[in-house]
């Protein structure tokens, strides 16, 4: 099984019950096709970067799950035909580094910024004018 994340945006005009139904629909697709849901995170209503159809806002959800690759095509097919989901994005986590990030994100732990590979250089002290002149000769 591989690690995945699906982010989707639901129309803001839906009631809370309708939104919950859409989230349950996506979760059901994942579980019926052999996937294991690690967590579901509601990010809330947010302003979109640009208008999608006639909507300027949307309700964001992220689902972290483990599944076989064959499940993704079925999930994408169902998300495309669902009119109440206006956008979606599926991400696959492959490398060890990405999988450890997936573990943290699925538990709700924020990732820390990447650390620099090398140590910072020691500060260089300014030379006296006489020493600088001798080196230049």
Please explain how this structure is put together.
Helix content is 36%, strand content 35%. The longest helix is centred in the N-terminal third of the chain and has 17 residues, at 16-32. The protein is globular and about 75 Å long. The protein has a single domain (1-105), classed as Ribosomal protein S6/Translation elongation factor EF1B (Alpha-Beta Plaits, 2-Layer Sandwich). It has four helices and four strands; from the N terminus they run E-H-E-E-H-E-H-H.
Give the beta-strand count.
4
Give the helix tally: 4
> What structural class do the secondary elements suggest?
alpha+beta
Instruction: Give the strand content.
Output: 35-45%
Whole-number tally of structural domains = 1
The strand line-up of the biggest sheet is 2-3-1-4
Determine the CATH superfamily. Ribosomal protein S6/Translation elongation factor EF1B
**Topology pattern, helix = H, strand = E:** EHEEHEHH
CATH architecture: 2-Layer Sandwich
Task: Kindly provide the radius of gyration, computed on alpha-carbon positions and rounded to a whole number of angstroms.
Answer: 24 Å
Main β-sheet description: 4 strands, antiparallel
Named CATH topology: Alpha-Beta Plaits
Shape: globular
Q: Spans of 5+ residues with little confidence (pLDDT < 50)?
A: none
Query: What's the rounded overall pLDDT mean?
Result: 84
**How far apart, in Å, are the first and last alpha carbons?**
68 Å
CATH class membership: Alpha Beta
What's the helix and strand layout?
Blueprint: E1 2-10, H1 16-32, E2 36-52, E3 55-67, H2 69-81, E4 85-93, H3 96-106, H4 129-136
Pfam families: Ribosomal_S6
Region (Disordered): 113-137
Organism: Campylobacter gracilis RM3268
């Amino acid at each position: 099984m591989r690690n995945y994340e699906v982010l989707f945006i639901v129309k803001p005009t839906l009631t809370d019950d309708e939104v919950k139904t859409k989230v349950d629909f996506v979760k059901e697709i994942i579980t019926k096709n052999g996937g294991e849901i690690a967590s579901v995170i509601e990010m809330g209503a947010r302003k979109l970067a640009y208008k999608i159809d006639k909507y300027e806002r949307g309700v964001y959800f992220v689902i972290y799950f483990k599944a076989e690759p064959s499940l993704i095509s079925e999930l994408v097919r169902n998300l495309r035909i669902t009119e109440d989901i206006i956008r979606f994005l599926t991400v696959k986590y492959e490398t060890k580094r990405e999988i450890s990030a997936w573990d943290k994100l699925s538990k709700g732990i924020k990732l820390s910024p990447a650390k620099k590979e090398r140590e910072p250089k020691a500060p260089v002290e300014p030379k006296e004018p006489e020493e600088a002149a001798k080196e230049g000769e």
